[in-house]
Design a protein that fits this description.
Blueprint lengths: L2 H78 L6 H84 L2 H14 L4 E5 L2 E2 L8 H9 L4 E2 L6 E3 L2 H5 L1
Parallel strand pairs: 1-4
Antiparallel strand pairs: 1-2, 3-4
């Protein structure tokens, strides 16, 4: 086989091997992203529950302050009854006391309701905090595993990049430029095998002359349909 074809086949294999790591890197990044997403969601739930509990506590404090004022109002009204001299004043004071008592009843009911809600939410908050801690530990582990995996990939890629550089140095620059030009649009299918007289880039059958040129491998031959560089695999040549 022509020396240039062998070099391009090797270069193509190296490029494929380098790019084959990208899905693994993407998968590792997705794992990190999903773990962070779950962690952020759990953090948002904890913050939401904490905010709700704090808001309810503030409302309870407000109602308790209101009860204190209403209670003082009733005491004052009780004192006023001793100095009332007309029925009209008595009725007005009675109405005022009824309104105060209704407000106190409502305030007590709201305090009970809010405290009951907070009891349930406090229990839920503890559960969510425990879940958050678990997710934090998971995120740390997943991130560590992903970073270790990416580190190993980087080590492998360094070996492949060195191999690629060696091949590039040994390859004719015109041939290399021709390969890179095709690779711009064909990616890692710039160099493809011919099997059963078909280009394994576009899967179109090539004519007999082109097929014969590929078998001879004296010159670089491209697919007449798609323009990819063609070669015959060793086992097929032997067959």
């Amino acid at each position: 086989m022509n020396k240039h074809i062998l070099e391009l086949v090797e270069l193509s294999k190296t490029d494929k091997a380098i790019d084959s790591y990208q899905p693994q890197i993407d998968a590792a990044d997705r794992k990190i992203s999903r773990a962070e997403g779950r962690l952020n969601d759990a953090q948002a739930v904890v913050e939401s529950l904490s905010t709700l509990i704090n808001d309810n506590e503030q409302k309870v404090n407000s109602y308790e302050e209101q009860l204190k004022l209403l209670s003082e109002q009733l005491v004052d009204n009780s004192k006023k009854t001793k100095s009332i001299s007309t029925e009209k004043e008595m009725k007005a004071l009675a109405i005022e006391e009824d309104i105060a008592k209704e407000k106190m009843l409502f305030a007590n009911e709201e305090i009970d309701r809010l405290q009951m809600i907070n009891e349930k939410k406090a229990q839920q908050l503890e559960e969510e905090k425990a879940n958050l801690e678990t997710l934090k530990n998971d995120a740390v582990r997943i991130n560590s595993d992903a970073q270790n995996a990416k580190l190993e990939i980087d080590k492998s890629k360094v070996i492949l990049f060195n191999q690629r550089e060696k091949t590039i140095r040994e390859t004719d620059q015109k041939v290399l430029a021709f390969y890179e030009k095709i690779r711009i649009w064909a990616g890692n299918t710039a160099v493809v095998p011919v099997r059963k007289q078909a280009c394994y880039g576009c899967y179109m059958k090539i004519n007999d002359k082109t097929y014969a040129d590929v078998i001879k491998a004296e010159e670089i031959t491209t697919c007449p349909h798609c323009g990819r560089i063609l070669h015959i695999e060793r086992e097929e040549t032997e067959a």
